[in-house]
Write a structure and sequence with these properties.
Strand content: 15-25%
Radius of gyration: 17 Å
Structural class: alpha+beta
CATH class: Alpha Beta
Shape: globular
CATH topology: Glucose Oxidase, domain 1
Number of helices: 6
CATH architecture: 3-Layer(bba) Sandwich
Order of helices and strands: EEEHEEHHEEHHEHEEE
Number of strands: 11
Oligomer: single chain
CATH superfamily: Putative cyclase
Length: 215
């Protein structure tokens, strides 16, 4: 893990605060223009004389605040059906404690890093200098804690230079759920209830997710 990482740890995860991105801009997933989110307005879709509006939303499943399923990195997990619909919602919803240590028994943790101080989640272009886990830091967390949910304040839990290896470490056991792209402005250490609900996308390896913290 990079030395700049500041931990905010959750005992079971993590005022009422909405942690999810309100909008998704063209580069917010980090994959370029091919992953642009698109909302067709009702004026384009409503036929003349129609009695109702009908909007259409097209969005990459890893854009903005989102959750990763094991099938995101492992083909055999994807083929076996370990998709978003297989995730344990009990892990994504609970009371949480945040501190600077990760004792045994802690099952959910949210990391508030310099990404928040630098307002990276508010920038339009993807920033490769974000704080995230290197492979050895991810492995330490897996080997030395009981954590089942890892949340972070940018679009990837893994550092840019170690993106694939770190994801592989976290997702290999299928026991850890990754929540990425959280907006943690104004979040302080304390005891909270967390509520994170992904879309029920059968066959998808990721999903946009709405997360709120309640003090």
């Amino acid at each position: 893990m990079r030395s700049l990482l500041v931990l905010l740890v959750c005992s079971e995860v993590v005022l009422s605060l909405t942690l999810s991105s309100a909008n998704v801009d063209p580069y917010s997933s980090g994959y370029g223009e091919e992953s642009v989110a698109c909302l067709k307005n009702t004026g384009e879709l409503r036929p003349n004389g129609s009695d109702y509006n009908f909007s259409e939303l097209k969005i990459p499943v890893h854009a903005g605040t989102h959750v990763d399923a094991p099938g995101h990195m492992y083909d055999h997990y994807y083929d076996a059906g370990f998709d978003v619909d297989s995730l344990d919602l009990g892990v994504l919803n609970a009371e949480v404690l945040k501190s600077l240590n990760i004792p045994r028994g802690v099952r959910r943790v949210i990391f508030r890093t310099l990404n928040t101080d630098r307002s990276l989640m508010w920038k339009k272009e993807f920033d490769t200098s974000f704080v995230g886990f290197m492979k050895d830091g991810a492995q330490w967390l897996v080997d030395n804690t009981d954590i089942k949910l890892v949340g972070i304040d940018y679009l990837s839990v893994a550092a840019f230079d170690d993106g694939i290896p770190s994801h592989l470490v976290f997702l290999e056991s299928r026991e850890i759920i990754l929540v990425e792209g959280l907006k943690l402005d104004g979040v302080k250490p304390g005891i909270y209830s967390v509520h994170c609900l992904p879309l029920r996308l059968v066959g998808a390896e990721g999903s946009p997710i709405r997360c709120i913290l309640i003090e």
